[in-house]
Amino acid sequence: MRRREFISLLGGAVAGWPFAARAQKSERVRRIGILMNLPADAPEGQSYLAALAQGLQEFGWVVGRNVRIDIRWGAGDLDRFHQYAVELVALAPDVIVATAGSIVGALQQASRIVPIVFVTTIDPVGGGWVQSLARSGTNATGFAAHDFSMGGKWLDLLKKVAPGVTRVAVIRDASVPAGTGGFAAIQTMASSFGVELTPVGVRDAGEIERSIVAFARGGNSGLIVVGPPSSVASHFDLIIMLAARHRLPAVYSARVFVARGGLMSYGPDAIDQYRRAAGYVDRILKGEKPADLPVQNPTKYEMVLNLKTAKTLGIQISDNLLSLADEVIE
User: Fold this and answer.
1) How distant is the alpha carbon of residue 182 from its chain centre?
2) I need a labelling partner for 66 at 20 to 30 A (CA). Which of 86, 175, 187, 304 fits?
3) 3-class DSSP state of 271
4) By mean pLDDT, which of 101-105, 230-234, 285-289, 301-305 is the weakest?
5) Residue 275 and residue 33: Cα distance in Å, rounded?
6) In 3D, which of 57, 80, 99, 26 has the Cα closest to residue 256?
7) Burial (CB count <10 Å: 0-12, 13-18, 19+), residue 163
8) Contact between 225 and 199 (Cβ < 8 Å)
């Protein structure tokens, strides 16, 4: 079943979670919390929830019959993450789905008992959310995003779309392990690609704009936006607008940027991770412990190109690169 068809099948109900549970008296209703890193109006968020709902349904968990789902939308705001983490834990859910490492951290501050299944989370060991990938050892487990070796891939793709680039601004959140580790990984590869790096922080919109405007004054410039997307969720449109205004070719870590007008992304297929996460939720609801479950790495990656943006930037995408793309937005 295609994603669009499934969302239609839900009749728009995903956007209205939580639902009132109308379970049969003979069936126990279980409670699942979800703390999203995106704004409530983000279409990508609805697609992710639809994938999770489809996966749960395949295991026999149906909203309104034997499961209730409570959703909070963090919109990339760390204060909201902590506020909503406390709210969800207070509802005494059987399991909580977390959609970013900083959300896992907020949930573990609120409770070391409530089971957590995370998705699209970078470096869960380095973040301290699990003890090892082979065996979580904590109340959290799930599905990791890319590892730091992706830095070389992003540089390679940037040079493929803009061979003349010699200066690269790396937009990352220095307050989280994924941001510092991601920048360090790109830094180790920079010399082999003949580029000089400039780190750009994401504390607020002003910092982002000032840094990019100053950086863009030099020539032969490009951007790489390092995950996690939650760190820049409230600045998606600003970053994409600045890249377009200053004609900077950019490679992003997630499809969400390209869907909003970014040039190119390469990273794990988030839809696949949400669908797979349903399996871990099912296992926990049936009695397994997160501490005993291994953290799983991505099995599907996707490269997405936006040809309209490429044309605006005056970039000619090669036929070879087009043939490698999993999705082309025209």
Assistant:
1) 14
2) 86
3) helix
4) 230-234
5) 16
6) 99
7) exposed
8) no
Q: Look at residues 309, 38, 2 and name the one whose alpha carbon lies nearest to residue 161.
A: 309
Tokens at 125, concatenated: 């060991």
Q: Give the Cα separation of 276 and 3 in Å (integer).
A: 15
Distances (CA, A) of 13 to 84, 127, 304: 21, 34, 28
Listing DSSP states for 146-165 in one string gives: --TTHHHHHHHHHHHH-TT-
Runs of H (alpha helix) within 162-305: 177-190, 205-216, 236-245, 255-259, 270-285
**CATH 3.40.50.2300 domain position(s) in the chain:** 3-146+269-301, 150-267+302-329
Say whether domain 3-146+269-301 belongs to CATH 3.40.50.2300.
Answer: yes
Nearest to 296 by CA among 279, 314, 316: 279
Residue with tokens 């699990």: 130
CATH superfamily assigned to domain 150-267+302-329: Response regulator (3.40.50.2300)
Tell the burial category of 80 from Cβ atoms under 10 Å away from its Cβ (0-12, 13-18, 19+): middle
Instruction: State pTM to two decimals.
Output: 0.83
221-225 and 30-36 strand pairing: unpaired
